[in-house]
Design goal:
The complex is a heterodimer of chains A (160) and B (107). Chain A contains 6 helices and no strands. By secondary structure, chain A is an all-alpha fold. Chain A has 2 domains: 68 residues, no CATH class; 87 residues. Chain A starts with a helix and ends with a helix. Classes of the chains: A mainly alpha (160), B alpha+beta (107). Chains A and B meet through α2 and α4 of A and α3, α4 and β3 of B.
Amino acid sequence: MTGLVEEYLRQLRASLRTRPEETSRILAEAEDHLRESVAAGRAAGLTETEAAEAAISSFGTVRAVVRAHQTPRGQAAAALGSLFMAIWFLAGTTLTAVFAVGLVLTVVIATTSPPWRSSDPYPSPGGLAYLVVACGLLGLPMLVSYFRVHRFLQRSRSRG
Amino acid sequence: MERERLKGNLDLLLLSVLAAGPAHGYAVINSLRERSEGAFDLGEGTVYPALHRLEAAGLLASDWAEAPGRRRRVYALTGKGADALAAGQARWRRFAAGMQAVVGWPA
């Protein structure tokens, strides 16, 4: 089997959101189809690479094949999962950014401003420090756990 | 032939091809292309979900067969599939006759 077909099947395996036994069947059928198609191309006088490119082009993009195999329920679940992951990433990034900016601000205020008095018209730098620490305590673990889950999902998909 | 219109009739086309005898996916798709003289040229990978759906509906049965160095899934029409094909053909004939009566063949 050519490297192009192997790479296509690897991408297909990583992208399918189907049950394991279904994934196995889809991949076996795709492999059989592509090998037949490459053999037909070779018989028609194409080189191995040309035959593989033609076979993959006729079979369809990974995205189109994945979409065709998704049930409406599966499509809704995939969209919901993507939305959840996006919100998780956005929340983690925002809280971490607030932590980073707040940390710099707190240090600047603490080193350049005169000591805070209760009569001052702005809030205590101590209050800002608590907020910054809270953002860091929430945001950093959120971001780290997001990347761990993301990597776990990618690995489990490529293992099929 | 527009792909959307073709997709709407894909089930009937697949049942018709498999009425000739059991076949694996690649042969089904090739037969569809040859019998339509190239007019029906779908993304090949998108035909398999339709075969799976027809099997889930009990219109097709399938089983693994050995091919050199790999396995392949062979599909066959069931009794229920043959009935669905006959009903689909009757509907198609009525529709085609109606269309031809109104639109006619181009001069």
